Every structure is written in structure tokens, then in C-alpha cells.
What does this fold into?
Amino acid sequence: MRVVVLGDIGQTVYHVGDEAMAHAVVDELQARGVADIVVLSRNPEQSARLYGTAAVKTLEFPWPPHRRETYLKEIRAVLDGDLEALPADDQVHALIKTVGESDGVVIAGGGNMNSPYGWLLYERAALGAIAEALEKPLVISGQTVGPVLTGPDYDTAVELFRSAALASVRESTSLEMLTEAGLQTGLTLDDASFLDVSPEGTGYLSAAPSYQPKPGRPYLVASFAPGTGAMARDDFTQRVAETLDRLAGPGDLDVVMIPHMSRPGNRDIDIEMHADIQRRMRTKNVTVCGQFTAEEAVALTARAEFVVASRYHPIVFALGAGVPCLALAVDYYGEVRLGGALANWGLGHTMRSLRHVVTPEFNDFVDELWGRRRDIRDYLNTISPSQADFQSAWWDTVVETLKGATPVAPILDIPEPIFPELHSGEHPEAAKLTANNEAHIGHQSVELYRLTHALEDTTGTLAAAEAERERLRVALEAMSGEITAVESEVSRLEQQFSALESSKVVRLARRLRLLRS
It folds into this structure.
């Protein structure tokens, strides 16, 4: 059986989380006998090396909303039989051929089913449309849907999920959104929750400087994205530095900063953020690591004493490995994902947002969370087997679906919140109000982006039309000049002809019948 797998992989910027989810899908399919796998990638050569599978180029959609909407319509027109809707050399034709030669399609998990990352949503929608047109079973695994989805994007996401033979999301808020849309969708953990660490793929990226755990020496893993939401970056990095100093104590805990996004060979994005935090810390035993592969990041995170992150997948890796963690969300998108990941393990109430970080009580919470770390570890290790069994059953269901079965998508039994003393104390209605405000701002931002690019395109079209009008005017003037010249020449010839007609030679020739009248 040949299966096509789409993840957000092969980017110029290496992204640990996206690669980890794709690795997990490939590993789980192979463990269940699916040996023939084709991954869709922006860099097929790189992905073929990292995954040990066949790899082909994925679709790349334009970023502006109206352009990606237009392109998806054109792809659907091709699928409906209008072969002139797109040029013969358009990228979609190769993908149609790839899917046509497969037995099924899997869209790996991710947080890109939303308008801010709409070009990735439409890439997935196009793949879903191709699978549906070719009658290939489509499985969508472990998604975050929204929270910001404008009208056209919402319709596109709903249509994509409706076309799937089997689908799951990874947090309750996403499940509620799709349930309200009348869709039957499963609830699972993130795809990479139990990613097995294997030697394949490791060492491909330059990770210098690195960190080697020392026997008997505990360490804390920290991972932060450059985005700091509504909080000034300097204020956020300073607060993070103070928190890490608080946890590291008087030098008895190493701090290992693992980037989840950077350009391999460059110390940018997360690495630059980590260096900024390190400069502000009093603790000296801090390592700002280079870019690891997904598997290397999982291996190092799983052995940590504690994890602190604004990134999503360090928290996912920590929970799956039984490592206590502090998740800091800088915006509503982060709250949905980080809070959802923690809630799936009964710890959703331990997530903290910027609203908490700026308060004096935050230090007390950090102390209490750190003080309960062993209890949290024991708790996670207790429920981990049942969580792993559930996720394994999900992958069984995925393979059954690809083989033609029509099972019902499973729903994760979310544990009751544990350790209630770690609750933020924030009233649910206040949190909901903040979420609604951020979602509204997000929708307005996307609409402004749409209108800005639509205006640019319209302006460009008008400019092109004006340039064409000017070209035609110049051409018409040139033609008018040529016509005038021709008319003058005709007039001159007519005058010569008239003069010739009246000449004595012509009159004589006609009398002698040498010329016709």
C-alpha cells in the first residue's frame, strides 16, 4: 500500500515541531506495515534523507488570501475537467499524478488550519480536493483548528474536514468548533506525543554548541519563540530570565536552551531569542544550543528535570515523557494550543499567559509548581500508559481507514484537573472575554491583510491597464502619422496621374489606340 503524507516539512527554516509530527506519522504507518510512503516536502531531497522515504514537491500557495482562494478554485476547476483552468506546467498536475498512484493520503498534525497561516490551510485543502476527486481515502490527524478563521477560510476548513474519511483534532476548543459545524471529528493527542527516538535523521543539522547530559546532573530545558504577544520583547525576555534564574537556583541545575525554529547554520529566530535571555540571566551554567533535528530535541527534552517554554512542542514532548513543565502562552493562539495540550493530561489549569506573568503572584506559582514537580512526574507516569494505548489505537484506526474501513473517530477521555492548588484563580468568564477580544483582533488583522493585498493587486491591474492604454495611444498616433503619410502619397500620385492623363503624349496615344481609355 502506498500512502502520501503531508506535513509542513522541508522549509528553509527548520521547525522541530512540524518535522516531529511528520516523523511520527511515518513511524506509526511503517510500524503497521505501510512500507511505501511518499512525503510531500518543500525540499524533497532533504526530506528523503531525513525520513528515509520517497519525497516529492508539495504545493506552494500564495500568501495573500484572495490569491490563494483563486488558486484553489482553479485547482478544483482542473479536477472537474477544465484542463485549461491552469497551465499544463502548473505544479498541481505532478501532485495529482502522485496522489493518483497512491492508495491513500494522510495530513499530519499541526497548527496551520487557520487564517494567519492560510496558505498552509489551502495547501491542505487542495490535497483534500485531489484525494476526493480521485476517490482516495483521506485521513487528517491531530489538528488545531482556528482560533482565527475568516469566512472563506472557515468554509474551506469545514469542507476539507467534511471530505475526510477520518479526522482528529488535538484540543477541545477545536473539537467544539467542528462539532458546531456539524462534523464528526475525533479528539486525540498531538501526533508527536510519543515520538520514538531513533538514530535515523540525527546529526543532519549543525547543532554546535550542543549539550551532553552529565550523570547525576539535572538540567532544565527552555525553548522560546521570538513572538511576545502584547508584551514588549525586552520586558518578556527579562521576566523569562528571572524565572529561569529562580528555577536554576544557586548553580545546581543546568539550563539548556533548545531552539525549535532556526535556519540551520544560522544563529537566528529561537537561537537569537535564547541568546537575549541568556544575557539577562545571573545563572552562568546556561547553554544556548544550535539547531537540533526533531529526534535530537525529543531525546534531550525527555531526560530533563523540568521544561519551560512558550513553544508548543517542548510541552508536548515533556508531557509524553513524564517531565513536569511550565507553559507560557503569549497570545490566544498559544493559549488554545498549550492549554489544550496540558488539558489532555489533566493539567490545563497550570498554563500561564502574559496576564499572569506580569503579576507578583507569578513567582509564587513558579515556586509551587517547581515544588510539586516530583508529584507531577509521578502522576504523568501513572497515566502515560493509558494515553499511549489510546494514541496507538488511533494509529491502528488510521491504517484501517486507509485500507478502506469506515471506523468512527475516537474521542480522548480527558482526565479531571489534578493539583487544583496550581490553578491560576482567573475567572473563566474573564479568560473568555480576553480570548474573544484577541480572536476579534486576529480576524480584523487577517481582513486588513486581505484588503491590503487586494488593493495592491487592483492598483497593479489598473497600472497595467493604464500602461496598455498608453501603449495603444502611442501606437495609434504612430499609425495616424503613417496614414497621413500614405494619404499624402496617394494625393501626390493622383495629382501626377491627373497631370499624366492630361498630357499631349497620352492624348495622342489614345487617338492612335495605343492606350486604352
Remarks:
- The chain is about 50% helix and 10% strand.
- The longest helix spans residues 428-501.
